[in-house]
Amino acid sequence: MTLRLGDIAPDFEQDSTAGKIRFHEWAGDDWVILFSHPKDFTPVCTTELGEVSRLKPEFDKRNTKAIGLSVDPIDDHHAWAGDIEETQGHGLNFPLLADSDRKVSDLYDMIHPNANDTLTVRSVFIIDPAKKIRLTLTYPASTGRNFAEILRVLDSLQLTDGYKVATPVNWCEGDDCIIVPSVSNEDAKTLFPEGWDEKKPYLRMVKQPKKGS
Ligand code: BEZ
């Protein structure tokens, strides 16, 4: 099944390193990063899972839970967790789904047979509290992901959900934003009383709104 932005993330029940997960119930009212990796006891995956563990405080700040997946059995996940802690300095602090029966991989189309017919690719889904898919990414097995980019997208999504702005190329938290084209200049005066820099009628740069304001 091809999942697209705006679709409801399919619910599932699957075994994990944190016990059985009922996905929607586990997600609760938080944002979720659901990501697959190809295989346990592999080098790139080891670095990725260490990094996601290291970043847990950053995910917490954004009311976001991480959950990983591969088609390896649960005993492998538990055995591998020791290697992740030993080599990356951060022990697994989020659940890893053991998707040996490929239930979740198939639901989320994480196996791309022309790349590899048995292993999951490096898929990423950002899912919002309404369970809508807000971002999809697919990386090849040989390329470790940049989880700073995933945090950056979370920041953008959480900001643009609350204010009538979009974020420009390479935007990072605190940088100027763009007033969305659907807002008239008349309405912008109320929404952005400190003004904006109109580079073109369709390109109006504004200071990043302060979250909570
Ligand atoms: C890795 O995580 O290092 C990896 C996994 C599968 C294929 C290639 C690399």
Overall pLDDT confidence:
97
| Beta-strand content | 15-25%
**What fold name stands as the CATH topology of the largest domain?**
Glutaredoxin
Quick one: biggest sheet?
A: 5 strands, mixed
Identify the CATH architecture of the largest domain. 3-Layer(aba) Sandwich
Strand order of the largest sheet: 5-4-3-6-7
Number of helices: 7
SS-based structural class?
A: alpha+beta
Q: What distance lies between the first and last C-alpha atoms, to the nearest angstrom?
A: 40 Å
Low-confidence sequence ranges: none
DSSP, total strands = 11
Shape: elongated
* CATH class category name of the largest domain: Alpha Beta
State the order of secondary-structure elements, H for helix, E for strand.
EEHEHHEHEHEEHEEHEE
Fourth-tier CATH superfamily name of the largest domain:
Glutaredoxin
Report the C-alpha radius of gyration, rounded. Answer: 19 Å
What ligand species are in this complex?
benzoic acid
Percent of residues in helices: 25-40%
Provide the descriptors you would attach to this structure in a database record.
binds benzoic acid; single chain; alpha+beta; 2 domains; Glutaredoxin; four-stranded antiparallel β-sheet; 213 residues; 11 strands; Antioxidant, Horf6, Chain A, domain 2; 7 helices; elongated; five-stranded mixed β-sheet; 30% helix
